[in-house]
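REVIEWER CHECKLIST
Item 1: Sequence provided? yes
Item 2: Single chain? yes
Item 3: Sequence as submitted:
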Amino acid sequence: MVPIGTGALDLSRPTAGKPALSLVVPAYNEAARLPATLDALESHLESCDGDAEIIVVDDGSVDGTAAIVEARPRRAVPIVLLRLPVNRGKGRAVVAGVAASRGAVIAFLDADLPYTLANLDEAVRLVTTAGAEVALGARDLPESSYDPSYPLVRQIAGRTYAALVRGALGLPFGETQCGLKAFRRETARALFPVLTIDGYGFDVELVYLAYTRAHRIARFPVTLSHRHESRVRLIRDSIRLFADLWRVRRNDARGAYGRRPEAARAGASTGCAGP
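Item 4: Structure as written out by the authors:
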């Protein structure tokens, strides 16, 4: 298990003139919430000793999401806008952002910034100086904050899905859907191009590949910065998420992800996956 720390974010070691951090923000009809998120991210990253870029991926929005980004004044942290012509899903938007990124560390987070910036710092630290290749926000850890007002039916659906993730995919943990993850560049470049799921199920596919391909994983607790209003449509998207579990199993059985390394066959738990 990679140690958890509380140090300030250090972006002082960019590689070959490239930014130390690329932060991907997928956005679909986020004109109302995106300005505050970008204000917070720019101010935070500017205060760090180093270089970063923010990549906003407009996933076929029909509101003013793209215009909001284009109209922002230029500051020390560059903001790159990518526009998908039609709505493809969060997974496809993140994949597009990762493909365009230049950073030594690549992270992504939700457009409404539901977790604290200290959580972002920790994700970057884990893959920068603590030996992890993948850092996963984990809402199921005891230290994570919990919103007791979250609808009971969604809580039950989330626990059911987590149990199915462990049972169907053999992962040692069921929480895969937290919208804050970070990767070393070489690890991201190995994982994201082979993803096949465009919607919310891309998270479980991504985590499954990281684990079964023996990448060193660190899970860290997260703290809600505000009430996160999920856009997951409970019935329709839950059916798709459950179906995606079997799609991932089938893809792997058919060799769609390539062969597992020997270390993964011996047990990917030799990595630094948390509880």
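Item 5: Key structural point noted by reviewer: Strands lie at 21-27, 52-59, 79-84, 105-109, 134-138, 180-184, 217-221.
Item 6: Recommendation: ____
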